[in-house]
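Hey, resending since the last one bounced:
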Amino acid sequence: MLSIVEQVFKKLNIDYTPRKNGVELQFRCINPNHPDRHASASINTQSGQWKCFSCLMSGNLKSLVKLVSGDISDIDNLITPKDTVQFKIGSIYKASTKNILSYENTVNFSHTIDCLMNDFMPATRDITSLNYLVKKRKLTKDTIKRYRLKYCKTGQYADRIIIPYYMNDELIGFNSRYIGDNPSTLRYLYCLNNSLFESFIYNYENITNNDYCILAEGPFDLMYLVQCGYKNVISTLNTNISRKQLTKILNFKKIIFCFDNDEKTKAGQNAVLKHASDILDFAPDLPIYGAELPVGKDPNDCTPDEIKDAFSHLKRIRLEPKVVPPSIFEYMRLNYNQGML
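The structure tokens again:
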């Protein structure tokens, strides 16, 4: 069943791409003064609120209809009473299902965490975990305590460093790093509240301003950079950026990547390009830089001087713009301005 927003878009011949299971629609900005080639705008199908992440124009569904039609159409003429009733029935069903699944997810996670927390201890209290974090990861006791790192000796997460993830001081999940001697054991195991983790950005609550952010690849890299004196260090903990994470990242005036400089796989460099592409799709003019570390090293491998040198020689990341055919409305506007229509 199409939402009211989708019905309006179809009647106005606005091309769009559904996101988040249809909760959001991505489309080219309808601002006449912004020839958008990147589908930089997004609208929420439940609220009707829309925004272009490039030119920053925003509004509601009613203002969008006026802007696209040139004040000759009214939203009431595009939506029939039958459309409204059908949408409300569908929305109630979807909202109820989503709330039920979210509740079950939260309950199951809370029960799991309660059982697991009995097996965890502060990482500073165990000599094995302390040696790993201090010698291998070069973290101080203050940093270990600041990020509330723990250690598990027994159970499902035995011989693992526990890295907890908090949102508004509520535990929403954790990552665990195996430090034992069995080479066949998975290095990382996760326990996450998926209903909340989609919008989570690690260390985001410690941001001091929106002048810039430093994106690190993993939690240990992030901790070490903060320990070296760098501020506004965050991590998405993933090679993908969700729409909710992207909304937060776009609040910064400048973005600096400090990822691993993998010599063979180039995984870190490729991840930077992927992240940068996702960001520039919505904000083509946003300054994005890369801190190039010594070959074969990640931030945790570097000395403070090597990291300082990388940040002293930041490189601007620019990507070739994607060629997107103009929408019918953009075509009409461009040709009208040139006197062809």
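The two ends are 36 Å apart (CA to CA).

Sorry for the duplicate.
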